Every structure is written in C-alpha cells, then in structure tokens.
C-alpha cells in the first residue's frame, strides 16, 4: 500500500450514515476483547502505541475509533463496527475533507459496504437514496470496489440495480482490470459476460491481460485469452514498459513468458462441404471495371519510398450487422494501387472482415503504426465499412467487425481517437481516406436500435497541420456503392483519379467531387465527398505521385 500522508499524529476517522454524536473516550479495557484483538492485528504493528475511543451513530450503533501513534504515515484505516471492519484508503484528499464527506454522504458508505461484501448494507443504502454509480475522489464506484475485493454477490446485485459495468476510474481502469490484479476469475467471467470490454485500455495503455500476467495469475490469464483478450498487444505493451523501466525487466520477462506459455494454439479448421457451398452462394458475381486493371507508374513519377506506411481496413461482412457491399475487395484493390505507387509490401497492413476486430484495429493504429513510422515518412490510412454516430453526442465511430452500434463507446473506434493517435505520430504527412458515413441514415452507416438518423452532426474535427482527411460524404449524407462497377462509388473514382494521373489529394478531391455526386444521383442517393482542411489550404501538399 502506498504511503500517502505524513503527520506527526494521525487521527483515524470513521464512516457514518448521517452524522455522528461523539461520546467521551472509553478506556481500552471497555472495548470487547475480540474487537480489540482484531484492531491490533489488522490496524497497527505490535510496536505502535494505540488509543481507542468510541463514538455512536444514530442508526448504526457503536463504532470503535482507532487513533495510533508511533509512525509518521497512514497505510490503511480500519474501523471496527459491530464486529466487522471497514477499509478506507486515503489518496489525494485531506483527512478533514474525508471526515466531512464520509459523515454526510451515503454514496461513500455504499462503496465501503461493497468493498466488505456487505450486501445487506448495500441494499439498505440504495433504499435510502445512495447513487449506485457514485464515484469517490479516485473515480472508483461501488462496483469497482467489489470487483477489486472479489465480492461477486455484491457485483451481481449492483448490476441488477443499474451499476455501470463499463465505468472507468480516474486512471482509466475498469472493474475487470481491478479484478484481474487479484486474480478473481469468477468476478472477471461475470463482468465479461455482462459485456465489459476485455481489451479496454487504462490511461497508461495497460489491459486486464497485462495486469493478470504481471501479477502471475495463471487462471486469470487463461480466462482472458479464452474470452478474446489480445495477447499480441499485451506482449508489445510489456516489452515497451520493460524498456522504460529497466530495473523491473525480469518481472516483465516473467509476465511475457507466462503469456507465451498460455498462447492459444492455432487449430486446424476442418473443411466442410456445406460451409463451402454457403460461402460460394454469398459471393458477389465477378464484375470487371476499368479500375481493376492496375496502373503502370514508372519510377520517375514515384515519390513514395521505403519510409512510407499504409493501413488499409475493409469490412464487408460483419459479425452481427448488414454487409457493407464491396468493402473487402475495395480494400484489396487500394492496397494494389498503393503498391503501384511505391509502397513496400512490408509497410502495408491490410485487415479485412473477421480479422478487423476492435482489438486488431486498435493494435494496428496504436502499436503497429507508431513502431514503424519515420519522422520524414508519409502515412496513408484507408477505411471502407460501416460508420455510426453515438446518439447522445453525434460523435462518429468506425464500426469494427465485432462492433455493436448499441454499445459504440465500448465496441467502436472513435474518429476523434483516430485523428488524435495519428496526430501524435512524427510523420511528415498523414492522408486519411474514408469510404464510409456516420449519420446513421443508411448506406455505409448503421444506427443504434431505436435511435434516429442525426440531422445535425458534430462539428468537424480540428486536425494537426500534417493531416488531411478525404471523406466519401458530407454531414448527414450516406456513402453508397455501385452494383454496375462492383465498387464503392467514392473508392471507384478515387482510384480512377490516381490511375488517370492526378497527383495531390486536393487535385483528386476537386476532380472526383462532381463525378461522385452525379453517380450517386443515378442511384437516387445524395453523396458529395468532403475534405478537411479546405482544398485551398492544401495546394502543393499531400502528393501521391509526380
């Protein structure tokens, strides 16, 4: 436990329901022997002087208050209450403030009750108006406390009363991460089954899997891996941390070794004729368009080199959503065009369909890309697939293969986050091309059940000066595909412009905008590409070829 406060004399404080009426101090011999024994055992070392007094709460009866001298710090405070004990850890709040808050707030009391596993106390406090999702000064809720201490019955009850399973504390930790540090596998499995993101990241980038591995909880690691935890990301994170913290290298190596030992074996997939037939029936008829024949770009027209990196994501088939027609093939064709421009195979990351999970997208953008980008290099990011708006805020999300528009905050990848992560790169230029839409009005956009398409979208992002975003749509429009051409309309004209020799992103935008608009009208759709920042500000920049 961290040593947080330093005082010559520490007065230990107590929890109350409404307010406390202090009584005169009682001699220690008046304290029941078993309580005194527990206080000495749990609260103080044998060489510390201890004073005990009592106080009374109107509703909770006698509470024993411990005051001790002999050390200049507080590790934990333990209060004896009717034979049970309450643990309170002080962090960034002064003791007088804590006394005041704990004396008035039922919300703090429900956290203590949850931590102890006192389900009766939790029910009582909720009945009296305590907030099931209240947070303490560190952002911990009753659910997080219960998860940390492995109180599964309390967790079940809190969830039944509306506790937020996805909540994070001030450090970005979820209840699953806290449970993982202690190896509470039954609690972890419950939280995962309730929908918590097994690959959620804390502010420092750690996940439940990195925590479980760090503390050596084999069963917890095994459970997380079986539930889809991203082992590759966890290993990358631990390796990165080992470099930053060389004094603990051996511990990181032990955690990595545990993960490698428990890494799931790749199973041979049996070939089944019915499945093959089903797949064949689901394939689009082969459509040949003029852009399917790759352009021949001679070396003197190439500016893309070995330092330039590309990420290409195309999701056509979703786990639980309608298709995004032609997105997979579009992504593959974009890769071929980028190779023709000069991108090296090893510098292109292509992820499609079932491989394009939230964890895979996150790993690619936030781990794979930063590890490869060069200060004077270019980055090209292409996405084709569903987008979705968060109904409350209008924030736009990329929808991964395993995404759910009803739970975007935990299953989607926010565009704001994408732009922020790309902005952290030290690349010379970053080009983003989005063949998707985010209004929820149809096309390549999906919407949470019961929600309506957004009429007003959130304001456009303010981007770093080295980033440009070319998008298939504006505002509430939808991005569509052309059955005749076998491609997304935006992607078709984007690649056609490259094939015809257009050089810069602004030039491509100005060329394809009227073409996309006309094609979309023939499909009874309003679609007009957009660019951020304005094309006028991009002249002579973001060049793809000579």
Q: What does this 3D model show about the protein?
A:
- Among the domains are: 10-195, Serine Threonine Protein Phosphatase 5, Tetratricopeptide repeat, CATH 1.25.40.20; 306-477, 3-Layer(aba) Sandwich (Rossmann fold), CATH 3.40.50.1460.
- Helix 2 crosses helix 3, helix 3 (106-116) runs antiparallel to helix 4 (119-127) and helix 7 packs parallel to helix 9 (208-214).
- Strands 1, 2, 3, 4, 5 and 6 form a six-stranded antiparallel β-sheet that branches. A six-stranded mixed β-sheet has the order 8-7-9-13-14-17, with helices on both faces.
- It starts with 9 loop residues before the first strand and ends in a 14-residue tail after the last strand.
- The model is unreliable at 1-32, 38-104, 266-285 and 449-459 (pLDDT under 50).
- The chain has helices spanning 33-43, 95-104, 106-116, 119-127, 142-149, 152-160, 175-182, 185-193, 208-214, 218-226, 231-244, 249-262, 273-281, 327-341, 358-372, 408-411, 415-423, 489-499, 505-522, and strands at 10-11, 20-22, 49-57, 61-69, 77-81, 84-88, 309-314, 348-352, 378-384, 387-389, 396-398, 413-414, 429-435, 467-471, 481-482, 487-488, 530-532.
- It is elongated, with a radius of gyration of 29 Å.
- Helix content is 37%, strand content 14%.
- By secondary structure, the chain is α+β, with helices and mostly antiparallel strands.
- ANK repeats lie at residues 105-137, 138-170, 171-203, 204-232.
- Keywords: ANK repeat, Repeat.
- InterPro entries: Ankyrin_rpt, Ankyrin_rpt-contain_sf, Caspase-like_dom_sf, Pept_C14_caspase.
């Amino acid at each position: 436990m961290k040593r947080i406060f330093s005082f010559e004399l520490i007065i230990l404080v107590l929890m109350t329901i409404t307010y406390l009426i202090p009584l005169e101090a009682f001699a220690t011999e008046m304290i029941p022997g078993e309580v005194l024994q527990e206080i000495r055992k749990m609260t103080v070392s044998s060489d510390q002087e201890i004073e005990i007094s009592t106080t009374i709460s109107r509703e909770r009866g006698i509470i024993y208050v411990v005051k001790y001298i002999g050390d200049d710090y507080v590790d934990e405070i333990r209060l004896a209450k009717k034979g049970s004990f309450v643990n309170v850890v002080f962090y960034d709040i002064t003791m007088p403030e804590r006394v005041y808050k704990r004396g008035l707030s039922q919300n703090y009391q429900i956290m203590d009750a949850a931590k102890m596993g006192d389900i009766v106390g939790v029910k009582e406090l909720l009945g009296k108006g305590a907030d099931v999702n209240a947070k303490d000064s560190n952002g911990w809720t009753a659910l997080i406390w219960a998860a940390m201490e492995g109180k599964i019955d309390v967790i079940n009850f809190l969830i039944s009363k509306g506790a937020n399973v996805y909540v994070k504390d001030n450090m970005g930790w979820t209840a699953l991460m806290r449970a993982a540090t202690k190896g509470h596998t039954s609690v972890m499995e419950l939280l995962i089954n309730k929908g918590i993101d097994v690959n959620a990241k804390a502010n420092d980038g750690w996940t439940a899997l990195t925590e479980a591995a760090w503390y050596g909880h084999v069963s917890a690691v095994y459970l997380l891996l079986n539930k889809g935890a991203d082992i590759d990301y966890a290993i990358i994170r631990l390796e990165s941390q080992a470099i930053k913290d060389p004094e603990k290298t051996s511990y990181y190596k032990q955690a990595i070794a545990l993960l490698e030992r428990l890494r799931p074996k790749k199973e041979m997939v049996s070939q089944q004729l019915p499945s093959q037939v089903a797949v064949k029936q689901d394939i689009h008829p082969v459509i040949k368009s003029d852009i399917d024949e790759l352009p021949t770009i001679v070396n003197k027209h190439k500016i893309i080199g070995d330092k330039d990196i590309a990420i290409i994501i195309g999701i056509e088939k979703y786990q639980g959503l309608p298709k995004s027609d032609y997105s997979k093939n579009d992504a593959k064709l974009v890769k071929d065009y980028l190779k023709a421009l000069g991108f090296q195979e090893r510098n292109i990351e292509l992820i499609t369909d079932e491989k394009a999970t939230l964890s895979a997208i996150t790993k690619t953008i936030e781990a794979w890309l930063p590890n490869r980008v060069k200060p004077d290099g270019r980055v090209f990011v292409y996405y084709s697939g569903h987008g979705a708006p968060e109904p409350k805020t209008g924030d736009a999300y990329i929808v991964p293969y395993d995404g759910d528009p009803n739970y975007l905050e935990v299953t989607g990848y926010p565009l704001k986050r994408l732009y922020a992560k790309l902005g952290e790169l030290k690349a010379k230029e970053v080009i983003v091309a989005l063949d998707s839409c985010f209004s929820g009005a149809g096309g390549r956009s999906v919407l949470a059940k019961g929600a309506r398409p957004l009429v007003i979208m959130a304001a456009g992002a303010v981007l770093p000066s080295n980033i440009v975003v070319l998008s298939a749509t504006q505002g509430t429009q939808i991005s569509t595909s052309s059955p005749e051409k076998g491609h997304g309309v935006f992607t078709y004209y984007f690649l056609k412009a490259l094939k015809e020799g257009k050089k810069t992103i602004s030039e491509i935008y100005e060329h394809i905008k009227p073409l996309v608009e006309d094609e979309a009208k023939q499909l009874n759709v309003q679609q007009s590409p957009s660019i951020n920042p304005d094309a006028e500000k991009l002249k002579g920049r973001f060049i793809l070829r000579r």
